[in-house]
Amino acid sequence: MSFDEKSGSQVHRVILEDRSRLTVSGVDGVESFDESSILMTTAQGMLIIRGSGLHIEKLSLDGGDLLVEGTVDALTYEEEDSRQGSFLGRLFRG
Predict the structure, then answer these.
(1) Residue 80: partners with Cβ closer than 8 Å, 6 or more residues away
(2) What span, in angstroms and rounded, lies between the C-alpha atoms of 13 and 9?
(3) What predicted TM-score, i.e. pTM, was given to this entire model?
């Protein structure tokens, strides 16, 4: 697990190669996943990955690393705001 020596917090990196291979560090947990989206908590907030044919190739919560393969269409960060209800509730509200 990588830590920022100045702040003492977990380092968060996102590396996307050719829209088909995504490496994320600083992952705290995976909330949900299927072939079209992956929802995870990271050191920088909730991260949503959207695409097609997505699959988790490697997940190491001890190291905070995630490797995803498939076609990545979008990466979105969501801030947690208790005034708007739960994140999952907003995500599936339609």
Answers:
(1) 45, 46, 87
(2) 13
(3) 0.76
pLDDT in tens, 28-74: 999 999 999 999 999 899 999 999 999 999 999 888 999 999 999 99
> Residue ranges of the alpha helices (H) in 1-94?
87-91
Structure tokens of 33? 């996943």
Query: How many whole angstroms separate alpha carbon 32 and alpha carbon 8?
Result: 28
Nearest to 13 by CA among 62, 57, 63, 53: 63
- Any bridge partners for residue 14, and if so which? 24
Taking residue 79's Cβ as centre, other Cβ atoms within 10 Å add up to 9
